[in-house]
From TrEMBL:
Organism for this UniProt entry: Psychrobacillus faecigallinarum
Keyword terms, alphabetized: Activator, DNA-binding, Methyltransferase, Transcription, Transcription regulation, Transferase
Chloroplast is among the record's keywords: no
Name of the protein in its database record: Methylphosphotriester-DNA--protein-cysteine methyltransferase family protein
Biological-process GO terms, alphabetical: methylation
Single GO MF annotation: methyltransferase activity
InterPro entries to which the protein is assigned, alphabetical: Ada-like_dom_sf (IPR035451), Ada_DNA_repair_Zn-bd (IPR004026), Homeodomain-like_sf (IPR009057), HTH_AraC (IPR018060), Me-P-triester_DNA_alkyl-Trfase (IPR016220)
Lineage of origin: Bacteria, Bacillati, Bacillota, Bacilli, Bacillales
Ranges of residues in domain HTH araC/xylS-type: 85-183
Keyword Nucleotide-binding attributed: no
Listed Pfam families: Ada_Zn_binding, HTH_18
Cofactor(s) it depends on: Zn(2+)
Length: 189
């Protein structure tokens, strides 16, 4: 990441605005707490006279500051990206369960609104859309490699009804599950 030269006042304005566009360009350290943060940290803002800015995490750590537990500047990923990775992992491992945005947000420890907003911002799709895509991909795999019925596959992949399964499958593959299986088997011969 290219370093930019900002004055103390410019960096101060960035942390007051919680501007995530400057994450990684500089770090804010607070003398009284001995903690350093990203510019986007949502923690209570310190007094201006207690702030020191560093260009790198290692500079802040060498000066005796530790990473904030809220914005986690010591992680490679921004906290939003870390949350998204956790959600993707959770959905991938629990796609068979009847999940709602509320269930997912409780598991992640954030509000449903925040979860959906962050997830869409990072991935351009909602958690629900990703969950459906995971389920459809698993269903396609089962259609190719098992003789399970469409109803069994629908239930095994977490769909609550066969009509929802058929509709989602058709939207993804432009064919019904049965047509998909027949076409795939023809290609294997």
């Amino acid at each position: 990441m290219d370093k930019i030269n900002l004055s103390f006042e410019e960096m101060w304005q960035r942390i007051i605005a919680c501007d995530h566009n400057y994450d990684g360009y500089f770090y804010t350290a607070v003398k009284t707490t001995k903690i350093y943060c990203r510019p986007s940290c949502k923690s209570r803002k310190p007094k201006k006279e207690n702030v020191v800015f560093y260009k790198t995490k290692s500079e802040a750590e060498k000066a005796g500051f530790r990473a904030c537990k809220r914005c986690k500047p010591d992680l490679q990923l921004a906290p939003q990206e870390d949350l998204v990775e956790q959600v993707i992992s959770f959905l991938t491992n629990n796609y068979r369960q009847p999940l709602t945005l509320e269930n997912i947000s409780i598991h992640m420890g954030v509000s449903p609104f925040h979860l959906e907003r962050v997830f869409k911002k990072v991935t351009s799709e909602s958690p629900r859309q990703l969950l459906e895509r995971i389920r459809i991909e698993k269903a396609a795999h089962l259609l190719k490699h098992t003789n399970a019925s469409n109803l069994e596959i629908s239930l095994q992949t977490g769909f609550q009804s066969t009509s929802t399964f058929y509709k989602a499958f058709r939207n993804s593959f432009q064919s019904s599950p049965s047509e998909f299986r027949k076409q795939w088997r023809k290609m294997q011969v």
